[in-house]
Design goal:
It comes from Nicrophorus vespilloides. In the N-terminal section; belongs to the purine/pyrimidine phosphoribosyltransferase family. In the C-terminal section; belongs to the OMP decarboxylase family. This is Uridine 5'-monophosphate synthase. Keywords: Decarboxylase, Glycosyltransferase, Lyase, Multifunctional enzyme, Pyrimidine biosynthesis, Transferase. The protein is α/β, with parallel strands linked by helices. It folds into 2 domains: 5-215, Rossmann fold (3-Layer(aba) Sandwich), CATH 3.40.50.2020; 220-477, TIM Barrel, CATH 3.20.20. Helix content is 41%, strand content 18%. It contains 18 helices and 16 strands. The strands form 3 sheets. An 8-stranded parallel barrel has the order 9-10-11-12-13-14-15-16, surrounded by 7 helices. Strands 5-4-3-6-7-8 form a 6-stranded mixed β-sheet, sandwiched between helices. β13 (361-365), α15 (377-389) and β14 (394-398) form a beta-alpha-beta unit. The longest helix is centred in the C-terminal third of the chain and has 21 residues, at 457-477. It binds the ligand O=c1ccn([C@@H]2O[C@H](COP(=O)(O)O)[C@@H](O)[C@H]2O)c(=O)[nH]1. Ligand LLZGTKA7 binds at residues 254, 256, 280, 309, 368-369, 398, 415-416, 418, 428, 446-450. The ligand O=c1ccn([C@@H]2O[C@H](COP(=O)(O)O)[C@@H](O)[C@H]2O)c(=O)[nH]1 binds next to β16 and α17.
Amino acid sequence: MASSKCYEDRLKAFAVELYKINAVKFGEYKTKVGLMTPVYCDLRVIVSYPKLMGVLADLIIESMPHMKDFDIVCGVPYTALPIATTISYKVDLPMVMRRKEAKDYGTKKLIEGFYKDNDTCLIIEDVVTSGSSILETVKDLTAANIQTTEAVVLLNREQGGEKLLKDNGIKMHALLTMTQLMKFLKEADCVTDETCQKVADYLKASQVDASVLNKTKLDRLKMPYEERISHSSNAIAKRLFKIMSEKKTNLCIAADLTDAAEILNLAEAVGPHVCLFKTHIDIVEGFSEVFVKNLKSIAEKHNFVLFEDRKFADIGKTCQLQYSKGVYGVSSWAPLVTAHSLTGSGVLEALEQAEGLAERGVFVLAECSAKGSLIDDKYVKATVAMGVEKKSLVTGFVCQSKLFVEQPGFVQLTPGVQLGSSGDGLGQQYNTPEAVMLERGADVAVVGRGITKASNPAAAAVEYKKLLWDSYLKRISN
Ligand SMILES: O=c1ccn([C@@H]2O[C@H](COP(=O)(O)O)[C@@H](O)[C@H]2O)c(=O)[nH]1
């Protein structure tokens, strides 16, 4: 521990510099959650003062004599990233980076950089209030098999973050506490007694209740499927969770074959190993009422749900007609369908009101596995919000990353899964079963050609089923 007088003088000088560059401001500021605070810390500005960044890194390094015991460091995105980079460079300790979202599908992981299973990691953060940002980083590092037990932060606002982190097994080291910062600034005549008092009163009155934060946050990624039944408002999601628990499978087959008889053969062969049987009915040659009747009876026999990947994307009324009328009469035999959010919530309303099976569900497409997809963050967020609004109908979302983790009633369906291939040369991008379950948050993985093109589809289905189920068990037991 760096406790010499000289160290304290340097720390004090650093605190004053923070004030001078406006990284610490006093007045009336609105916090993220809309409350007023008399002190505002914006450490982002430090990147414009490289010498000060160097001083900060030195102070942190000196305060953590055991830093070299860690295998890697990781900054909490985004403000702490340059701080972590500077420390990593100075100590020659490798760094990894956590993505806030796995945006560029396919090649990019949630944790970037080189690391090994069970590497120990020191988390670096700028300011801690509740500690929840550090915990989000811990969650992704843990999912990548990286061990995290300690974090070092520039400023502890002393509002309960340290306790929440401790409760979650993370020991926090702080370069400065807010009390110490105020003391230094007062001694340097940067602030008045009145400001110090205001800040002290504010800290006392605005403690984050760690027990509330600990208790109220649900995490679907840690919950067994059967426990999620009671959180769902959609009948098909409930049925799906039950089937997955009973059959011990989270595999959805994409039966993209064009011959009706071959589809029925496939359904018989893989039926015992899947929870969902996904079709694109408009590619089928030989579609008939008998075909539908046979498919339905195989679904009943092997206890899986028929799922037509229709991707409705028109105005509500047209989607309603496409769903219930025409040659395929989808709403009479497929309890599950997909829809785009592109044209607004009228589509969901229309699908709910259409004639057809009494129990039905919709997977809303929030992200696409195809390379160059035009879907952006704003679209993804609006799609999830739209689905949440219609939770009686919405079974879940088709997506590629961990969305809606605190909403265990929804199912994440993730296509683009294949062993031994990264793409099909036509835009499709593949991940392994382990990656979609552990890194991308899938609840159900969709496998198409990985099974349908295998020499023995039933054996391939068993292999995918095992890999996916083992990854799920690993995820909930971590
Ligand atoms: O983003 C998406 C949405 C849907 N799909 C569908 O999944 C299967 C994937 O088949 P593979 O043979 O495993 O590539 C296919 O039916 C797509 O329409 C998707 O791939 N990506």
